[in-house]
User: Which sequence fits this backbone?
């Protein structure tokens, strides 16, 4: 009789644990918080998940004193526009290029992106076709970090690329 009782209890316990175990699901990544206010408390009227005036992704430069908007196509052509503190209007610089530095594990690569018109006195748009750089920028947040530096009025302004869920590219 003891063996029947033990068998019944074993079957009941197994059924209980199988039938009552919680459903296993993949963890849901929380949506990143967006903060459109500067530390001084005023609203810039944008967030970096929103598209810029050219429909690209936004990067704050130097504590949001300026912005860099970037977009790309499937060929690997990357285009960057220098914008004001509100990320609404184009601004210019005398620098004929911007730099992007990407780091994957221990490998750091810096690429200079030239102005679309290197002979002009003032520059606002920078462009390069570089499939490897594009691939690295698309991997930001997945083992790759990237930052850009733009020289404006002899002052370097730096901004970090953020993980992008598909914005900033044209199809």
Assistant:
């Amino acid at each position: 009789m003891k063996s029947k009782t033990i068998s019944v209890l074993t079957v009941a316990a197994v059924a209980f644990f199988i039938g009552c175990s919680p459903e296993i699901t993949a963890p849901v990544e929380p949506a990143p918080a967006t903060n459109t206010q500067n530390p001084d408390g005023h609203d810039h009227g944008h967030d970096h998940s929103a598209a810029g005036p050219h429909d690209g992704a936004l990067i704050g430069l130097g504590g949001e004193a300026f912005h860099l908007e970037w977009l790309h196509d499937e060929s690997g052509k990357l285009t960057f526009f220098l914008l004001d503190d509100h990320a609404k209007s184009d601004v210019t610089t005398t620098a004929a290029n911007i730099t992007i530095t990407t780091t994957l594990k221990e490998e750091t690569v810096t690429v200079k992106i030239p102005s679309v018109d290197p002979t002009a006195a003032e520059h606002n748009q920078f462009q390069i076709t570089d499939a490897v750089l594009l691939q690295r920028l698309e991997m930001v947040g997945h083992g790759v970090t990237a930052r850009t530096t733009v020289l404006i009025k002899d002052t370097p302004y730096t901004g970090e690329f953020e993980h992008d869920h598909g914005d900033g590219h044209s199809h």
Observations:
- The first strand starts at residue 57 and ends at 61.
- The domain at 57-160 is CATH 2.60.40 (Immunoglobulin-like).
